[in-house]
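Protocol step 4 of 5: obtain the predicted structure for the target chain.
Materials: sequence only (see below). No template structures provided, no constraints applied. The aim of this step is simply to have a reference model before the mutagenesis design in step 5. Sequence pasted as it appears in the construct record:
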Amino acid sequence: MMSPSLMLLVSLTLIQDAEPAELTIERLYASPSLNGPVASATRFSPDGGLITFLQGKAEDASVRDLWAIDVDGGEPFVLVDSRELVPEERELSEAEIQLRERARISGSGIVSYDWDASGDALLFPLDGDVFHYDLETGVARRLMETEAAETDSRISPSGRYVGFVREQNLFVQDIESGETRAITSDGGGTLTYATAEFVAQEEMGRSTGYWFSPDDRHVAFTAVDESPIPVSYRVDIAGDGATVTEQRYPYAGEANVGIRLFIENIEMGQRVEADLGEDSDIYLARANWGVDGRLYIQRQNRAQTVLDLIAIDPETGGGVVILTERDPAWVNLTNDLTFLEDGSFLWTSERTGFRHIYHYTADGELVDEITSGEWQINAIEGVDQDAGRVYFSGWMTDPRQRQLYSVSYVQSGESPIRITSGAGWWSGISMGAGAQTFLGSYSDPATPTHTALYDASGQRLRWIEENALDAEHPYFPYLENHITPERGSITAADGTELHYIMYLPAGFDPDQQYPAIINVYGGPGVGRRTRMSWGSLEDQLFAQNGYIYFKLDNRGTPDRGHAFETALHRAMGGVEVEDQLAGLAFLQSLDYVAGDRIGIWGWSYGGYMSLMTPLQAPDAFAAAVSGAPVTDWALYDTHYTERYMGTPQNNPDGYEQSSVFAHLDGWETPVLIMHGMADDNVVFENSTRLFSALQENDLPFEMMTYPGQRHGIRGEMRGRHRTRTILDFFDRHLQPAD
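Step 4 output (structure tokens):
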């Protein structure tokens, strides 16, 4: 196999005689995607003979179709063309919009799908309905013909039912007979069944509120009562008017929803309520059916310092605590609970400071600590129970990489074996039956994402999407100007090593001085900005427009161990700012950086950091762009904010110092503030309060608002406009005058 760097060298050689194309904003957002065709949501069919995946259309990358490929050979083919099935989709319901926004799903067409247990059919949402696709006949039929939209549609494990939520109630439809039954009927108003509440979707990574048992006998489902949360009136301003939306937003320190959990015997129609404990102010973080027929739930206390794993009897609703995790800062959630055939289970924990794998009996007795050391598990990916091996993704030597490893869970003390190759980033790993094969996607700084089928030793068996960077690739005309970032590290004030990447501008001359832009996120819970992957082509755009483009992973970000992340505990806007200022000092120490022409920008937490960093170093930056910023953490939601900050009631000084408003006496940097005017995550009030405070204090700023847009700015034309606005702002403030 040719190395990625050699492939890039060969590609560059092929275009030496060709005129290099200029990377423009227009082309960056046009189709086909410059990243090439990327397979997402890759899965094996239940019999293992077919691999399915989603892929955007060549003529419009935002519209996805369902593709398939035979494991044994042949070319990929379109299984379901979304536009042939539905030429023009109807407008999404508010519930669908919110679900997609929470899941960070953009685009249209087939955005998710589900196999039935037999492998004879697939299920997918489209056009506000649920479609059932028969593999043998190639016919897709609508399961419901209703005006109301169905959300969270899924096939039950044994393939007997389709579950879905309609008008705040849970329904199941018998696939064979077509009979639909309402599991609940009194949902409405502030009561919603089987739907993940706002913070579960946005912050816990739990997108559903119902779970079928493996034998299809039972379905567990939530009942969420939003009445404890006061109504907030959010004005969603669109291009053609405004809508006043009632939103029960759970602000930090205020009330959460009331949540209950029920288990219904579908055939008998009998229901029990699960015992979630005496404390009602809790989070239902996870629910999984075990091989012993019990429902295992993960319950967090409000402070998120305690996580209990509880086994629930589906016939009585009674529960027993199997194990408990505690941490003085917070306990991070995972999806790593993995049951084995003998009833025991694998579990991961950060109790030693780094996430590792543990083996427990069915009763919660520790059998063995499977992995240990100052390195990090990302996720359990699969188990070969015949060989007694568990497969996991993570890093052992470099947190900027992600690899797949395996280790024995029956032979104590074995060192993990690395399965994947390359100095890059593996994602989308899906293990086949018995963990004998896996699907995986890989990229590195010289290699756009490609996806293939591999055996358990890491040997590639066949391509799913090679995405070769050859003369046919959409990015090929731009390769000659492609800039590979430099990588390095600096030292934080406490001696911690901090990693950075830096793009040098096109035509770089070390004897000249260039303006620089720091692109920042900086918050907890979001992966490494310096990862060894293909990267965003927007980074290329800034570098090719004459900027040094710099990214630094500060303390408080994940994947470097729990202590690295909890450095910001109860004091956001502290160590993160300190580390970004260390990055600024490093840039200013470089002879080829114009130290008085450095800007900073970011979105969401990065928008917050793009305000807090210049405010705490008023003379340091020449310009800043803040996108969708939190300006006061009391305006953000309970589960996220309280995990890191506590509540405004028990940490008033922390909230005060972490607020942008406490630092306005340092407002000297030219700032552009951008925000979607229908943002229901970082609500628009964060920016409007800042606008008002700046105006009241006669402090200058610029703003760009996006009517109808939520936390992400969607669509090709708006994406172009957003990027052009940012680049134009920096050009005005950082580039030397003619």
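Step 4 remarks: The first helix runs from residue 4 to 14. The domain at 483-734 is CATH 3.40.50.1820 (Rossmann fold).
Proceed to step 5.
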